[in-house]
Amino acid sequence: MQIGVIGKANCGKSTFFKACTLANIEIGNRPFVTIKPNVGTAYVTVECADKEFNVQCNPRFGYCINHLRFVPFDLIDVAGLIPGSHEGKGLGLEFLNDLNQADVLIHVIDCSGSTNEKGEPVNPGTHDPVKDILFIEYELDMWFFNIIKKGWEKFARTIQQEKQYLVKSLTKQLSGLRIPEDIIKESIKEFDLNPSKWNDKDLFKLASKLRRKTKPMIIAANKIDIPESQSNLERLKKEFQNYLIIPCSGDSELALREASKLNLIEYIPDSNDFKILKDLNDQQRKALDYIKENVLKKYNSTGVQEILNKAVFELLKCIAVFPGGVNKLSDSEGRVLPDCYIMPPNSTALDFAFKLHTDLGKNFIRAINVKTKQVIGKDYLLKHRDVIEIITKK
Fold first, then answer.
1. Cα separations in angstroms, 171 against 152, 179, 214
2. pLDDT at residue 27 above 50?
3. Are 184 and 173 in contact (CB under 8 A)?
4. What is the reported pLDDT for 95?
């Protein structure tokens, strides 16, 4: 699974990315600080299954704090987009293509309105962040449209002459976008069965539909600690009721995570407080007091971890599943509940077996729900936080 972080230049994207990953990247108050995409490891949080078994897990990947499991995934931060990116302006096409593998997008906006459309700093409140959402939507739709449009006339003639099945042919034609056949079938229901009759308006409509279905997006309303952000946030939520819009402060989350890494404070991402562990200088204490008063107390967290969690579990509707045994929760090296897998919605016990190992899937006999000790079949629909044992042929 991969999540893409997008936005216009200088909106706080790279700060948001670094706050999630603590990756060593350049951050600057100017457009196009990021040129090549940054890829790092971020985490979603899941209430760990070890709690029900009164044990402490030992993750192979990620970590667990107070029975809160941090499960890793890939996060990619592409360079800031500008109007005309779909035409190649600002190396926009290269940046858009970097997003092709992303399953969901986090659109970071400067909610304070202190960055104009070119990514240049302006006085807070002088730029309308509504425009940023509209412009990114348009750039993404035009990206899809240009891919669909390329070679369309020849494709449409071939379908008409050879009477090929439209959905399968269109799926193959758009294979570069990795769009499942069922989504294409659903998206063209209202279109004429003869694609040669589709004009540019039809193709753009199709592009927009496919983009929304295959690249769901959550809005990270960044720089929420700046006073002008509050009124803008309320306006954004009214204007874009079809989006999840979460207030956040990438700067605050980064400061807290770095202070925690240095053992200056005790801080768990998504918390509404932190504990000071060492004597701090006046500047450090002042910065932490500002975060506590203007972010944590007002919004109950910095919002960064909430955005990651909602992108995975709410937008993608994924679930977390643990492999384990009824008689033994540990692996051959003694690690208790060492793994946790993020699975797509409607995954079955058989899907999980194949996720663990191809041989487990091929030799699947049955599975056991470790929490209930009930035997389950291959078609059992997995639930969030299930612990599953796979039984195979000897």
1. 13, 7, 13
2. no
3. no
4. 61
Q: What is the CATH number of the domain that holds 387?
A: 3.10.20.30
Looking at residue 303, its amino acid is: G
Can you tell me the distance from the alpha carbon of 4 to that of 308, in angstroms, rounded to the nearest whole number? Answer: 11
Residue 61 CB partners (closer than 8 Å, separation 6+): 71, 72, 339
Return the CATH number at 244. 3.40.50.300
Q: Which two tokens stand for residue 292?
A: 């506590």
| Boundary residue ending a domain (157, 180, 214) | 214
Given a contact cutoff of 8 angstroms between Cβ atoms, the answer to whether 8 and 82 are in contact is yes
Residue 370 three-state SS: coil
Give the residue from 58, 63, 57, 65 showing the smallest Cα distance to 41: 63
Question: Could you give the CA distance from residue 54 to residue 49 in angstroms, rounded to a whole number?
Answer: 9
In this structure, what CATH number is given to the domain that contains residue 183? 1.10.8.470
Instruction: Examine the fold and report which residue of 313, 345, 365 is the final residue of a domain before the chain moves on.
Output: 313
Whole-number CA gyration radius for the chain: 23
Residue type, 174: L
- Whether 35 is covered by a domain: the verdict is yes
- Predicted structure pTM score: 0.91
Nearest 5°: the CA angle 298, 300, 301 is 110
Of 306, 290, 194, give the one whose Cα is nearest residue 247: 306
- H helices present in the chain, as ranges: 13-21, 92-97, 129-149, 152-162, 166-173, 181-187, 200-214, 229-239, 250-261, 282-291, 297-299, 304-310, 349-356, 358-362
At 377 the pLDDT is: 97
* Mean pLDDT calculated for residue range 226-231: 95
* CB atoms near residue 41 (< 10 Å): 14
